[in-house]
Specification:
Keywords: Ligase. This is 2,3-dihydroxybenzoate-AMP ligase. GO terms for molecular function: 2,3-dihydroxybenzoate--[aryl-carrier protein] ligase. The chain is of the alpha/beta class. The chain folds into 3 domains: about 25-180, Rossmann fold, CATH 3.40.50.980; about 210-430, Rossmann fold, CATH 3.40.50.12780; about 440-535, GMP Synthetase, Chain A, domain 3 (2-Layer Sandwich), CATH 3.30.300. The chain contains 18 helices and 24 strands. Bound molecules: 5'-O-[(R)-(benzoyloxy)(hydroxy)phosphoryl]adenosine. 5'-O-[(R)-(benzoyloxy)(hydroxy)phosphoryl]adenosine binds near residues 192, 237, 310, 340 and 356.
Length: about 550
């Protein structure tokens, strides 16, 4: 049985195959190509692993999972941080056709619950070093709530029975892979979200593999590539743009950093002679501050290319990179749903500094829509509409949401406001979707509002973005309540619901009522104006 998903129409699927985009090979081909390569594939804080070892360990884990009854059509919930095991597990699951959701390490109870409810996993792979899995309390509850779960493996487990390391070292004579068909779901990506529940994005082998090969070509990754993965390993950007999978495809080396701080990364860059890495804009600011403070960018002398994406990179910040970090900038405007835009390595400075690049495939179809759905000419701002050989056709199990997110011709509306230059480059101008982009980390307003409304004293709540110099945006919750509620208590309330820390509102403002638009929706635009010079909203304390 394979996972249900919205497939591309036949005529486009045929075109994508004819043009050589879809090659009908499973994603494990990325590793098979390097199976006899004795070069180091990845390095984390615990040690290094060659391609041959990665192939062997993922085979062993795949065999161990198979012996425990896992089989094609099953799903898995995985939560691992920036550690080598992430890719041992990823390839092992692909090898036996088990379809994973890779939760971010920052995710907590609410997110894991939501993913498990949606995919009904047979397998859970988690880490004892994560707060939720330090002891068995949450695990026992979780297993009780999700009867589909048949097997659990834990990184750092004490008992052999549930030890991920023990499963990975189970020896076996031979192993034959049985991945899902290349035009079927390989794994789920996580949507940044704009609705109450985090949405899942089915990615097929064919579409994802194409996006990786194309990224490798655009960014010129090869066996000389030494890539630092400083962002969360499960995010689409460091996975595939070109990210770790691009590094593996090219036979290069990936080094895993625990976080994107200058303190951690500069050392790793120097030690491993890293030549490319990917950051979000706030991390760039912090790196520049560190260089100023330490009076030198010496540690970064091996760095040739810095990719920046996930959130809008301001032109002033962009302009400092070449001089102060001492390497080339590449802007990346991508989304877990598919479409990725890059500035090209030989673009002129003006395009690199002032645009977010252009789509990587000649068959990415992209246009700008006005409110009535008409196509707008270059220079005008409207909604981004796109479809193409690696852009998904529907969120998992979400017919109502899909009806809104796609037009009749299968174009996905990402909720971004963009304009196109005369020569086809994209400029991100803003956003329509009800989401806060907190330095690249996405917060769906509705998800947090629903959690706030669970508080007995909260009558109404609205989460909006407020400008922030470092993060680009931070989040502010406007609360309607009959009693005075202190910020720490509100944060505690949200923490008790178990959500990722980055989703906690940075600020709370109590108001008498929430302003409404003429059609009766909460007027978030007006709320956001609170942060501009004059406050039109009558607030009463914080
Ligand atoms: C990446 O993926 P997601 O799924 O976390 O977020 C996608 C959204 C976009 O729709 C856009 O709103 C925003 O993040 N975004 C940018 C941006 N890159 C992403 N906004 C302005 N400028 C940029 N350069 O964030 C992602 C996935 C693959 C590669 C890179 C980023």
């Amino acid at each position: 049985m394979s996972i249900a998903f919205t497939a591309w129409p036949e005529n486009l699927a045929r075109l994508y195959r004819e043009r050589g985009y879809w090659i009908d090979k499973p994603l494990i081909d990325i590793l098979t190509r390097q199976a006899n390569n004795d070069h180091v594939a990845m390095i984390d804080a615990a040690g290094s692993m060659t391609y041959r070892e990665l192939e062997k360990q993922s085979n062993q884990l795949a065999g161990a999972l198979r012996r425990r009854g896992l089989t094609s059509g099953d799903t898995a919930l995985v939560q691992l941080g920036n550690v080598n095991e992430f890719y041992v597990v990823f390839f092992a699951l692909l090898k036996i056709g088990v379809v994973p959701v890779n939760a971010l390490f920052s995710h907590q109870r609410t997110e894991l619950q939501s993913y498990a409810s949606q995919i009904k996993p047979a397998l859970l792979i988690a880490d004892r070093s994560h707060a939720l899995f330090g002891d068995d309390a949450f695990l026992d509850t979780f297993l009780g709530q999700h009867p589909s779960l048949r097997q659990v493996a834990l990184r750092g487990a004490q008992s052999e029975e549930q030890s991920l390391a023990a499963w990975i070292s189970e020896q076996q004579a031979t192993f034959t892979a049985s991945p899902t068909a290349a035009d079927r779901v390989a794994f789920f990506q996580l949507s940044g979200g704009s609705t109450g529940t985090p949405k899942l994005i089915p990615r097929t082998h064919n579409d994802y593999y194409y996006s990786i090969r194309l990224s490798v070509e655009v960014c010129r990754f090869n066996s000389e590539t030494r890539y630092l993965c400083a962002l969360p390993i499960a995010h689409n950007y460091p996975m595939s743009s070109p990210g770790a999978l691009g590094v593996f495809y090219g036979g290069g080396q990936m080094v895993l950093a625990a976080d994107p701080s200058a303190l951690v990364c500069f050392q790793l860059i120097e030690k491993h002679q890293i030549n490319v890495t990917a950051l979000v804009p706030p991390a760039v600011t912090l790196w520049l501050q560190a260089i100023e403070e330490w009076g030198s960018n010496q540690a970064l002398s091996s760095l040739k290319l810095l990719q920046v994406g996930g959130a809008k990179l301001g032109e002033t910040l962009a302009a400092r990179i070449q001089n102060e970090i001492g390497c080339q900038l590449q802007q990346v405007f991508g989304m877990a749903e598919g479409l990725v835009n890059y500035t090209r390595l030989d673009d002129d400075e003006q395009h690199i500094l002032t645009t977010q690049g252009y789509p990587m495939s000649p068959d990415d179809e992209l246009w700008v829509a006005d409110e009535q759905g008409n196509s707008l000419p270059a220079g005008q701002v409207g909604r981004l509409m796109t479809r193409g050989p690696y852009t998904f056709r529907g969120y998992y199990n979400s017919p109502e949401h899909n009806a809104e997110a796609f037009d009749d011709n299968g174009f996905y509306c990402s909720g971004d406001l963009i304009s196109l230059t005369e020569d086809g480059y994209v400029k991100v101008e803003g956003r329509l979707k009800d989401q806060i982009n907190r330095g690249g980390e996405k917060i769906a307003a509705e998800e947090i509002e629903n959690l706030l409304l669970r508080h007995a004293d909260i009558v109404n709540a609205a989460l909006v973005s407020m400008p922030d110099e470092l993060m680009g945006e931070k989040s502010c919750a406007f609360i309607v309540s009959n009693v005075e509620l202190k910020s720490p208590a509100l944060r505690r309330h949200l923490r008790e619901q178990g959500i990722a820390e980055f989703k906690l509102p940075d600020r709370f403002i109590r108001v008498e009522r929430l302003p409404l638009t003429p059609v009766g929706k909460i007027d978030k635009k007006l709320l956001r104006q609170t942060f501009e010079a004059q406050s039109p909203i009558k607030t009463s304390g914080e």
